[in-house]
Amino acid sequence: MAVITPPRVEFGHLEPTIVYFDDLDAMGVLHNARYPILVERSISRYWATRGYSFENGRPTTPDVFHVVREFTITYREPIRGTGWVNVHFWLERLGTTGADYGFRFLSADCGSVHAEGRRAIVRLDPTTMRPAPWSDKMRADAVHLLRPQP
Predict the structure, then answer these.
(1) What is the DSSP code (8-state) at residue 80?
(2) pTM of the prediction?
């Protein structure tokens, strides 16, 4: 499959991702449990290109040591079959120790919304396992993902 160049979005980031055959359920649509995985992979790819990832089983920065506090999704229109879809995500809020992402699954041409939801995370101190503040660098890198407030 050729890589597609997604249309630009007004805020956040649009990450093309592939739905494979083993992502489908018996009816040939993307299985509901695969949506969260595709969101995680899309956000992880985005941050990895900016130096926030894991190498040799270790975080490249303490900011990647975080947990999901909440994940909600509303399914709108099934994704049928394999191929490219777009995961559009952004930050609704960047707090001291947490962040709230919004996301939606769009068709390859961005004409259809397949699903939308919210993913909230909390950064943890690896020693105490208690909430810890984001680094100044991460905050600076995350600013452009923030959704403009009306």
Answers:
(1) B
(2) 0.92
